[in-house]
Amino acid sequence: METKRDGKKKQTTVITYGTFDLMHEGHIRLLERAKQLGDFLIVGVTSDTYDRQRGKLNVRQSLTERIENVRRTGLADLIIVEEYEGQKVEDILRYNVDIFVIGSDWKGKFDYLSNYCQVVYLERTKGISSTQKRGIVRLGIIGPGRVARRFVQESRFVSGVSVEAVFHPVEAKAREFAQELELAWGGSEWQQFVESVDAVYVATPHHLHVEYALRSLEEGKHVLIEKPLALSRSDAERVFALARQHGLVAMEAIKTAFMPAFRKLIGIALSGTIGDIVYVDATFTKLIPEKGREFDPNLMGGAFTELASYVLLPIARLAGKRKWDAELRFLTKRGQSGVDVWTNVEVIVGSLVGFGKVGLRAKGEGHLVIGGTEGYIYVPAPWWKTSYFEIRREKPSDNRVVSDAFEGEGFRYEIAEFISAIQQGRKPVGLADDDSVWMSWIIERFLRGEGVKEVKS
Ligand code: CTP
């Protein structure tokens, strides 16, 4: 305790911050030692949004529960919420803090605060962490292709998951991938593969998604299935029925569905901010040379099977249950191999109309517009990597920009949601089984040629 000029003792104020998820001995020991350094302990608990923004995904407990964890220790004199980057300096000034305390895993990171107060790094308690308490999901990949490579790289930013193994019927392909990405196992032995993992990511060409998803579910493994999950309604229903029967998570890997800003967008649009929703207009085009998997009819290639999941996603989410009454119209153009290289779909659901454009051999503006009776929501290209959007109104001065966390390729939010759903024994939030089944049904209708008009090539 230091003495003030007027002779009265000034109390020493200590501050520390953390997530305090699934409270453990390490947290308690840190708080005890922090308390001993002064007379008044302030504990900052990170908000859910801030954790997401700083890339800490997969936190199990809500902010309220985590605050309660800290309160129950009886060590904090004041609990505050840490909501944004840069808040620490403001807190230190506002509360006249003398000592900033944090665990040694942050050594050096907060030296800049020494301009404002004393900075103390306390030795971290060994052998315990929230990450460890949440458990690690061992994940295996089926189909070592381009998307799987990006997936492995992004998974390293999600706590609680470890990609352990990769399967391909051609042994050498799996081995090469495992070596390149430093995975523990790569091979063509199915039984060995499934036994070494808790969950599977199916990243094969489209026509094999269902077969591998069902095989994995039968072995008791959770499944994350690349889009499109299935090419027919009944196949998609089989996948979800088997998952339900075994109490497992089955989720379609449409990364946009799980991006924080996209989830916000859907919530805002549904809450009436732009009035009644009149139309949804989404475009996704990708120019690629006319060869390879995407153009192979035997592998169910084509622009629609490749990209429709993206443009159908906002339509499915905004139409809700009404989507099953949809009237469909397709306009399509085929390429040399016979698959579609450009398709336009119109989905009419009561008073709501969805327009989706996809293309592999024609480029278009990749934006998303949701039009309403009182304004519209605009997401600039590439809207499927949603980081921000604008709510626009008749009077431009009433416009508003909304943003949320977006890091890397955006895959990490999908992986985090899959892992959280497994760990918490719940359904994924952001994409319902019913949405995936509906999208498979639309793809089925297109492949069957129902309501399809062809444009001359
Ligand atoms: N802490 C500690 N010893 C541990 C774990 C955490 O001293 N074994 C400290 C951290 O250094 C930090 C505070 O407790 O000062 C809050 O940390 P938090 O990030 O909430 O806990 P972790 O267990 O590290 O969480 P996670 O595994 O999710 O990163």
From TrEMBL:
Please list the residue ranges annotated as the Cytidyltransferase-like domain. 15-131
Q: Supply the InterPro entries for this chain.
A: Cyt_trans-like (IPR004821), Gfo/Idh/MocA-like_OxRdtase_N (IPR000683), Gfo/Idh/MocA_domain (IPR050984), NAD(P)-bd_dom_sf (IPR036291), Rossmann-like_a/b/a_fold (IPR014729)
- Give the protein family: Belongs to the Gfo/Idh/MocA family.
Molecular function (GO) terms for this protein are: nucleotide binding; nucleotidyltransferase activity; oxidoreductase activity
Q: Which organism is it from?
A: Thermus tengchongensis
The record's section on NCBIfam families has: cyt_tran_rel
Q: Which Gene3D superfamilies match?
A: Dihydrodipicolinate Reductase, domain 2, HUPs, NAD(P)-binding Rossmann-like Domain
In terms of superkingdom, the source organism counts as Bacteria
Q: Which PANTHER family match?
A: OXIDOREDUCTASES (PTHR22604), TRANS-1,2-DIHYDROBENZENE-1,2-DIOL DEHYDROGENASE (PTHR22604:SF105)
For the keyword Transferase, the answer is yes
The segment(s) forming the Gfo/Idh/MocA-like oxidoreductase N-terminal domain are: 138-251
Write the protein's name.
Glycerol-3-phosphate cytidylyltransferase
Keywords in UniProt for this one? Nucleotidyltransferase, Oxidoreductase, Transferase
